[in-house]
Specification:
This protein is α/β, with parallel strands linked by helices and 274 residues long. The protein has two domains: 192 residues, Zn peptidases (Aminopeptidase), CATH 3.40.630.10; 59 residues, no CATH class. 31% of the residues lie in helices and 9% in strands. It contains eight helices and five strands; from the N terminus they run ααβββαβαααβαα. It has a five-stranded mixed β-sheet, covered by helices on one side. Strand 1 and strand 2 form a beta hairpin. Helix 1 crosses helix 3. The radius of gyration is 22 Å and the shape is elongated. The relative contact order is 0.13.
Length: 274
């Protein structure tokens, strides 16, 4: 047990290998949940876990569980995990580090022949990012009982595709019931996604809390008028009003340092014409 260590080179190789699925020209990743790229990385993860001596099960929301048995399999598993989906312009490490770090633990245990007391599970949560299907943490929310299963399945992306139908399209709607799966502990290794650790010269931090996220959607309605002939004083420009809202949202974040943040991340302009 004293010599049981992970292989950093092997972990790095896994990170670089999975970065092929949805890789972009700029070196990032575009791997939205329940797309072909997501299916590819899921298949890779499943095969890697089976090769590491695990069984892999999938629940009704597509959450993946790679299980390595222990000496006492009546004990709830010790879980490690995160997510394999990304933002449209995501990086190589967000989410996937937490999943592949868990995989490296499985590989190290398998290579050493060490048998843990409780089972070990590595989890890939579906749609943690929430970029394609809102809200974020949709399937883990269903797992934990925050969301009803029907709510999870009925969420739609911008093209009107249901979450449940997208699951079926890539073949990852599992038979394992959503939720009701006890854990003894859950660990998630995650990149900071911010500048604080580097600025303070620290290599790692222990999370004691997370941001309480809220999303708001606002519709700002103006009046159609000709851009070249309507006098400025007689215009009612919806986009100008939206720009003022962006500025106000930014001011709210600045007014509540050091922890509060506020961002406008999506804007749809209609008819969006010159």
């Amino acid at each position: 047990m004293a010599n049981l260590t992970i292989d950093g080179d092997r972990l790095w190789a896994a990170l670089m290998e999975t970065a092929r699925f949805g890789g972009t020209e700029k070196g990032g990743i575009n791997r939205l949940t329940l797309t072909e790229e997501d299916r590819q990385v899921r298949d890779w993860f499943k095969d890697a876990c089976i090769a590491a001596g695990c069984t892999v099960s999938v629940d009704e929301a597509g959450n993946m569980f790679a299980r390595r048995p222990g000496r006492d399999n009546t004990l709830p598993p010790i879980c490690i995990g995160s997510h394999l989906d990304t933002q449209p312009t995501g990086g190589k490490f967000d989410g996937v580090l937490g999943v592949l770090a868990g995989l490296e633990v499985l590989r190290a245990l398998q290579a050493s022949g060490y048998e843990t007391l409780a089972p070990i599970e590595v989890i890939n949560w579906t749609n943690e990012e929430g970029s394609r299907f809102a809200p974020a943490m949709l399937a883990s929310g269903g797992f934990s009982g925050v969301f009803e299963k029907d709510y999870v399945m009925d969420q739609r992306d911008r093209e009107g595709i249901r979450f449940g139908d997208a699951l079926d399209a890539i073949g990852y709607r599992g038979e394992k019931p959503l939720g009701g799966h006890p854990m003894s502990a859950m660990f998630e290794l995650h990149i900071e996604q911010g500048p604080i650790l580097e600025a303070e010269g620290k290599t790692i931090g222990v999370v004691t809390g997370v941001q309480g996220i809220r999303w708001y959607e606002a519709t700002i309605t103006g009046v159609d008028s000709h851009a070249g002939t309507t006098p400025m004083a007689r215009r009612n420009d919806a986009l100008l009003g939206a720009a003022k809202v962006v500025e106000i949202v930014n001011a709210v974040g600045l007014a509540h340092p050091p922890l509060a943040v506020a961002t406008v991340g999506l804007m749809e302009v209609k008819p969006n014409s010159r």
